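User: Here's a protein and a ligand (5-phosphoarabinonic acid). What would the complex look like?
Assistant: Let me lay out the input and then the predicted complex.
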Amino acid sequence: MSGPTGVEAPAVMDLDDDARQAEVDTADALADVEQAPAQWRAALEAGQDVRAPLDLVDHVVVCGMGGSGIVADVVAAVAAPRYDLPVVPRKSPGLPAWVGGATLVVAVSYSGNTAETLASAEEALDRGAPVLGITSGGRLAELLEDAGQPLVLVDDPGRPPRHSTGALLVPVLQALELDGDLDDAIARLEGITVACHRDVPSADNPAKQLALRLAGADTGVPSLYGTAGIGEVAAYRLRCQLAENAKMRASHHAVPELCHNESVAWDDTSTAGGVLWICEDPAEQARVDVLRDLFDDHFAWAEGVTAEGASPLERYASLVGLLDLVSVHTAIARGVDPTPIAPIDRIKAAL
Ligand code: PA5
């Protein structure tokens, strides 16, 4: 894992103070993220018997929202370079018109009660599509049990959905027979968790260093740029995690597409925040290097992280293992409790 270096921790944002962490992070969200490798490993066991009718379908749609929906993005990105079936993420109610009996619909909802995902699952059943559910229970479990469709019931130890993505992602990969690289991915997560554990001081801890950059970016909204595919998913994941955990905005975009539009806005430095380059694809490294040479000084600060590992899944794990920790440390550095998500609760209650 490579990460930023040389960031001094201002006293007000001391990430090496355990008492301050406990005071700010009231539910110890940091522990949820530090325990991600164990969560992925436990999920291997839970979902090992699940199989989907892959020989009967010609498309896969993975439905989910927010912390569950990121599973759809990851699976689609991991599958794209090597899978025979198209895998399409769905993050709104209903389904595309082409979905029918030859489409496997995977419905992922940690609570099992998310309206958009339920609407997609109901529509899939109406159209005669095979459905696989991944949930801790709720109405999704009832719906699929009544319909005689397969279900993976994941544990709900009270973790937020966004910190349960291992439990949700692993059974989907198993069901789709995309699980060949899971051991390497989990080993990669384990390495990062050790290197970036809360006990490792900021001077040696890449997650804390990047969090201090993000928490100190008071000049504007940070831009998170990932290489197309998994790098872009990692950038989007960090954007969502910064929003929910640190309660801060960020933008994200993909290399190389941003060369053809967003790059034109970089000349306006009046409101520029920092930039984080997330390189997952070695073939894109040269392009990222050129962009950094040309434009890094148009941002308030610039940092880069590079994926490691042989397979797409391992490389994703190498990024998300670091960036999920970054998001929680950013919250703590800002003095913000990572766990509450009052606006999401209000929106769900109102609809
Ligand atoms: O992090 C969160 O709590 C949200 O992003 C939820 O994941 C999202 O609202 C969907 O809920 P669920 O994961 O229960 O389907």
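Summary: Confidence is low (pLDDT under 50) at residues 1-12.
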